[in-house]
Amino acid sequence: MTDLDELERMLAASGGGTEDFDQARRSAHGLGLFICSLVGLDREAATEVFGDFLSSRTLNANQINFVNLIIADLTQNGVMEPELLYDSPFIDIVPHGPDSILPSSE
User: 3-class SS at 25?
Assistant: First the structure.
């Protein structure tokens, strides 16, 4: 049994309805993503994942700031819709969005 299965079992046992879980799964594309959207991500874990990305490339200050904004958003919100990269505060650093600062393959 996975942690998410156990969490769902515990919530259901405490009186939560399965239709609520199904709706959460659908709205967030999974119960795990729904929970992340509520509690955010651990900053250290997010930084570690992006650390591999940052250390394997030579990036300029704007590129590093852009990635740091992504980390900040993920740690606050847990998930991020890609279209947010074309809104403020991201376009405050890169007015034309991520396509103009990072190669499309990245």
Answer: helix
Could you tell me the pTM of the whole model?
Answer: 0.59
Domain ranges of the chain: 3-39, 43-100
Question: Can you tell me the distance from the alpha carbon of 60 to that of 43, in angstroms, rounded to the nearest whole number?
Answer: 22
Cα separations (Å) of 51 from 19, 57, 59? 39, 10, 12
**Cα dist. 67→10, 29, 56 in Å?**
36, 24, 14
pLDDT at position 87, please? 92
Per-residue model confidence as pLDDT tens digits over 81-97: 889 999 999 999 888 88
User: Whole-angstrom Cα distance, residue 82 to residue 35?
Assistant: 19
Round to whole Å and give the CA distance between 32 and 34.
Answer: 5
> What is the three-class DSSP state of 1?
coil
Question: 14: Cβ–Cβ under 8 A, 6 or more apart, which residues?
Answer: none
